[in-house]
């Protein structure tokens, strides 16, 4: 037997080395993974959305009447004083320029109106003469009636005739006034001003209703405007707030007084705020993807000194994160370590150089951590972002 072993010793050795190499090549290698720890610390869950700053009390000054407004010379950022600063001046609107045909028609109408006025004056003179004659006839009839030489019926007829002549005179004089007014109207239509020059009564000053700063000019150039046309917007930049339109299903999760972190406003520091009011009315809006959404305005006040927000103005864009839950000593696991297996959350725990799959109970989740309610202990090591190669019981090695 020993002779046979000595004779085949090299073949046996080569076969053993071949089997060992083959086994080593097929032996599963350790999977490199990233790991993280289960820790205790502060954890916050919030809702982040775009917001826009606005002045708390903004006033839009409108044209009080229809007319011709002068050019607004003040600029955005200028200070105004209530009932003192003149924003613009308004006057009556200019008349419409006449073409040749309209002018000739008005000139003919003026000639006809003047002829009618002269005719009315002539009828007035005739009515005056008739009234004088009727009054003299009445005087003679009254004298004869006193002496009994004239019947009562003739006296009544004389009185009626005098009264009728007096009424005819009044009508003639009214006709004269009517024709005179018509002549004046047509003359006014012919007496058009130069193009672009306002007419009518003196200019009306449009004054600022409140003290503050001009935020924007809504109608700068001079020209004819209708009553109620917005001219400028006035507000106090020191009294500024933020409006965030949240989805209605997110708005029900926040409460007045909740803290807010304001970021991406242009500065590096994070500004603090607090919810003042949640409006009770939701508005339908269309998102950039064409999806109909019910949005609710949430009003946020700054909890910062004035010098910290002095660079923010009306209509600036910010990001607001509203806190809906927070805890100072939450047991937390990196969010990349949890995954779904069926209806439950699971993690891979590092134990003895191998991955051990374990179900866990998860509470609140934010962008970095998940709150652990059960299944993990503090300082345990878990695999972060496990790939398809990681499985329960698989050997692993820390990539770092």
From TrEMBL:
Q: Which GO terms describe its cellular component?
A: cell envelope; extrinsic component of membrane; macrolide transmembrane transporter complex
Q: Name one Pfam family in it.
A: YknX_C
The listed locations are: Cell envelope
Q: Which GO terms describe its biological process?
A: xenobiotic detoxification by transmembrane export across the plasma membrane
Q: What is the lineage of its organism?
A: Bacteria, Pseudomonadati, Pseudomonadota, Alphaproteobacteria, Sphingomonadales
Keyword flag Lyase: no
Swiss-Prot/TrEMBL keywords: Coiled coil
Full protein name: HlyD family secretion protein
Organism expressing this protein natively: Parasphingopyxis lamellibrachiae
Highest taxon above the source species: Bacteria
Domain named YknX-like C-terminal permuted SH3-like: residues: 330-397
